[in-house]
Design a protein that fits this description.
Layout: H1 3-14, H2 20-28, E1 32-34, E2 39-41, H3 44-48, E3 54-55, H4 61-73, E4 78-82, H5 86-93, E5 98-101, E6 106-110, E7 120-125, H6 131-143, E8 147-151, H7 159-163, H8 166-170, E9 174-179, H9 185-190, E10 197-201, H10 213-220, E11 227-229, H11 235-246
Parallel strand pairs: 3-4, 7-8, 7-9, 9-10, 10-11
Antiparallel strand pairs: 1-2, 4-6, 5-6
Helix pairs in contact: 4-5, 6-11
Length: 251
């Protein structure tokens, strides 16, 4: 049960359409459900604004399917599954409605929600090689009810490509800047935008990039004041944060 659903329940109580006892039962029913190998957090949406999300890596395909089925069966309309292999996706989709994005290694079980944020989240990448991380961010943002604009391959080696999209950058509610190599894209975007910029270093690059550590350190030392940084290749974490920003003031 998310915040909107809880608010609607309390309004029905206030109007006399639902008894206090029935509302109390609905609220008590949700804390968590123990299915043996997992404890599903039914109060996550109410506490945090977004329902629990399934991290698919290191889980078996059977575990992923059972967790997602339990979530959907309990009334959760959208279940996001990240870091899911194509093999696991094929197994889950044979049992549940699943929209799988192979580039993102992520899927949405159940319904894809309509955007209900204040504005748009822009996702920009330095190069085409960063698209898998960007797609994870995009799928996450969409699953959390956001409108997404993708700006791919707009890195600093051809700055005119980024500057051709200044309108999108300057009207965004939040921007996710994704880059490997030296990670310079985040500072450039941060110097153009008046909204928060969430930088994602990727593991793309030659030897001295150290699997993304070079980009991470560059982004942490950005001279643009509005830039924050998440972990290497963490498109999910960046999109979750951007969604929170885009939903400030939205009940």
């Amino acid at each position: 049960m998310n915040k909107n659903e809880t608010k609607e329940l309390l309004e029905r109580v206030a109007r006399g359409e639902t008894s206090v006892e029935a509302a109390l039962l609905a609220l008590k029913d949700a804390p968590f459900r123990d299915i043996g190998f997992a404890k599903i957090d039914g109060h996550r949406a109410l506490r945090c604004g977004a329902a629990e999300i399934v991290y698919g890596a290191s889980k078996t395909k059977e575990q992923i399917a059972e967790i997602a089925a339990e979530m959907l069966g309990s009334g959760q309309k959208t279940v996001l599954i990240t870091r899911m292999s194509p093999d696991a996706a094929e197994f889950v989709s044979s049992r549940l409605p699943l929209d799988y994005n192979e580039a993102a290694r992520a899927g949405i079980a159940g319904e894809r929600p309509a955007p209900d944020g204040r504005g748009k989240i822009v996702i920009a990448t330095g190069g085409t090689s960063d698209i898998p991380v960007a797609e994870e961010a995009a799928v996450t943002a969409q699953a959390l009810g956001n409108e997404v604009t993708r700006l791919y391959d707009v890195g600093v080696s051809g700055l005119h490509r980024l500057l051709a999209h200044t309108d999108e950058i300057m009207t965004a509610s939040a921007i996710i800047a994704i880059a490997g190599m030296e990670g310079a894209l985040a500072s450039v975007v941060g110097g153009l935008a008046d909204c928060p910029v969430i930088a994602v270093p990727t593991s793309v690059g030659y030897g001295a990039s150290f699997g993304g550590v070079s980009a991470l350190l560059s982004m942490l030392n950005s001279c643009a004041s509005g830039v924050s940084v998440v972990n290497i290749d963490n498109g999910f974490g960046a999109a979750y944060c951007a969604s929170m920003i885009n939903h400030i003031g939205v009940i």
